[in-house]
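Now for a sample.
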Amino acid sequence: MMSAPTSQLEALTQHIAQIITHLVEQQTVDSDNASNKTAAGFELLLISNTDHTKSVAKALETGFKDKLDLAITTHSPQDFVQINFNKRYDLGCFIEGSLIDNQPLQPLTPLDTDTLKLIATRLRDLFAEQSLLFLAVSGHCGGPDKSDGVTDKFSLNDLGYTLLPITESADCNSHCWQFNLYDYKRQPDWLNARFWANPENFDKYRW
């Protein structure tokens, strides 16, 4: 069991570790149920505009040493929005730099907003099976008065992201937004074999 986080950096790292553990367990279940089992590691993409990203990567590598073949790739936001698609990662994370640099949070400029939206959509659509966005708690990332948005220009909810609870320390002041390719849209009750989606009922009933 992990100890209680004592800093913002530890809180974020522990949260990422918990998500990795959950995804690996799910991969194990899927592999056990598959006819062609193959051993595979876990590939993580970290994006942040801070040098402390290396500290997060090192902490994760240390925590999973001898437990998981964990490969970590890091990019700055500026690099990530420019690179061509090259591979799909098991998990992609964006960490707002002010969260771990302890710098005062500045209002997002239109360019920042566009970059954040581009990061969120590129992770969702191209680079990751599951995406996490760690954003400072403020008007631009959600909060008591604006829990479903980033700015007036776009909403993370509209992009398919959902707000996740995060283990917090006294210093932790962040929200974690998640997009999971396989459960972002819940199947409606009517879309099942008991109703019109059952091919055995075709031409039997008229509504």
Q: What stands out?
A: Confidence is low (pLDDT under 50) at residues 35-39, 139-149. The first helix runs from residue 8 to 33. DSSP finds five helices and six strands in the chain.
